[in-house]
Write a structure and sequence with these properties.
InterPro entries: Acyl_CoA_acyltransferase. The chain is of the alpha+beta class. It has seven helices and seven strands. Helix content is 45%, strand content 20%. It has a seven-stranded mixed β-sheet. The protein is globular, with a radius of gyration of 16 Å.
Amino acid sequence: MIKIENRSPEDIANYGRRIGEAFAASPGIAETIPHDDLVKSFEIITEFYYRMGTLYATSEKYEGFLAYWDKNTRQPLRPALHMIWRMLCEIPFKSLLNIATGSNEQYKKLYRKEKDYIAVSMVVVLLAYQGQGFMKKVLELPFAEAAKRGCPCILDTDNIQKVVKYEHCGMTKTAEKKMAHDITLYTMAYLPTSA
């Protein structure tokens, strides 16, 4: 895995569009948001993770992307406000409501009593590389960090197919919650033996 640094705004926008395309092809909340709105939202979100310093890629080929941090990481105010402003200006209100439904971060509530955890906020394998084992490669970095700290690595997903993939990678489903639009949000955890 490589940390995405020193890239142009055009590069970051391109990564975001490719990430958005991969999410748009997945069942779940993505089906309730117009394609172009979803892709644009991931362009904005990817820029936020880049500005936050939490965006990683599998390699210089960019097969997959990841954004993660620990429980005590504080989101920097300026990038967060910039993301919110762009979302409000560039995404129609109805789509924003659906996006907000899918970004509940259920794991924060479930694991709030944990001393520490590694939170994976975005994990994606681009369309051209899906089905080739890259999901395990994308998750290696946060799993290693969780093992080093002896804490869980957690994420939420609204896609039952991804639940199966995450289980194959070593995660366990720890909770599920019914959301709007007949969507279920699943919380997944990787629990290293020392956690």
